[in-house]
Give the backbone structure.
Amino acid sequence: MSDSFLVAARLPMSREAFDRWLDLPIPGKAAIENPAEMFTGWFWDGKESPGGWNEAAEGLTVREWLLERVESACTGPSGTVLRHHDGALEMYLFDLGYYAPDVQAALLALAAARPSTESIALFWAETGGQLWKAEDDGWMAALSIGPDGARFVSRAGLDLTRTVAGLRAVESEFFELAERVGEDEENWDPAAQPVFRTEVPREYVSL
C-alpha cells in the first residue's frame, strides 16, 4: 500500500488576514530562506530536495491552487482541509504518493501567510494519514513560519509537542472528510456512474 504524504499547519492569524492570504500569489522558492535544506536532520536526511518548487502553482493565487486541488479530490486520491478556526489558519493536506511540486506549493503558500507568531508546518508520510507523535522519527520536514519569513529547521533541539497537539483538531476534521468520502465510495454504482465522483471535499475547504 502506498504511503499517504501530508502537510499540516496551524498558523495564528485574524480572519481578515486569512482572507487576504487566499488571494496572494503563491511565491517562488525565495519565500523560504533555505529551500535546499528541506530534509536536513529529518527522516529523509541526505535526500536532495527537488529544485522546481512552484511548478504546480506557478502564476496561481492560493485560492486558485486550492480550487484545483479540491476539483482533483472529487475524483482522485487526495484531500485538503483548510479553514480559519479559533483564531488560526488550519491546513491538513493529503496525497496518495509523493508528488513534490504539490508539497512544495503547499509549503510556499504557507510561507506567504506570515502568521502573527512563529509556527511550524510539518511534512511527513504515514499510511493511515495520521499525525506521528511529537517524539517519533517519521517526520520529513519542518518549516518555521513567522511574521518576518520562513525557513526549514532541523530536528536538533526542536520540540514538536505543542505543534502536534495544536494540529489534532484539524486532523480530526481530515478523518471526518475521509470517512464521508469512503461512504460515497461504498455507495457508488459504476454501472450508473462509470467514473467515481464525490462533492464532499468541497465542504472542507473554506474559500
